[in-house]
Specification:
The chain has 162 residues and is α+β, with helices and mostly antiparallel strands. It has two domains: 29 residues; 120 residues, 3-layer Sandwich (Rieske Iron-sulfur Protein). Helices cover 20% and strands 35% of the residues.
Length: 162
């Protein structure tokens, strides 16, 4: 009886000690409020259904589409020197560039069944033939689908978790 009590006590205190020791480590994995406040973000409070908003950062341009159903779709496109980098055939190997890129729209209103594509005036380059639907799926093989960033929605703001 004494031996069983001793073993159960040791196991209990070992488990409690393991939980207490691991708690600060687990908490440190989550970003603190200061880090969250410094993350890139987009205010979507005024984004109406059937419209989109674009926010350019130093390395990526973020497109947020609010579909007619109210569903949000978020995509990243790499940029370099104010030009959108096009995949060849992956986004990690972007060689070609496009000056004007985005969803087919009338201002900020999405065209139903529209696509993402390059709108440059020079139509002779291969980048002009690349297209993605509004779900981010590539319509041209073997090119990759659009990049979907890690993000979190808090209230009416999208925070990008870079």
């Amino acid at each position: 009886m004494f031996r069983t009590t001793l073993i159960l006590s040791v196991v209990f205190f070992a488990l409690v000690g393991a939980v207490l020791i691991s708690y600060p480590f687990i908490q440190s994995l989550n970003p603190n409020e200061k880090q969250v406040n410094e993350l890139p973000r987009i205010d979507i409070s005024r984004l109406e259904s059937g419209r989109f908003v674009e926010a350019k950062g130093p390395r990526y341009s973020a497109f947020v589409l609010k579909m007619e159903t109210g569903e949000l779709r978020v995509f990243f496109v790499p940029i370099f020197e104010d030009k959108y980098k096009m995949p060849e055939p992956t986004w990690n190997r972007s060689i070609g560039s496009c000056q004007k890129f985005g969803p087919e729209s009338d201002g900020d209103k999405l065209i139903p069944e529209g696509k993402f594509r390059c709108f440059d005036e020079d139509g002779s380059r291969w980048e002009m033939n690349l297209e993605w639907d509004f779900e981010g799926k590539s319509l041209v093989s073997p090119f990759e689908d659009m990049q979907i960033p890690k993000y979190e929605i808090r209230g009416q703001t999208i925070f990008f978790l870079l």
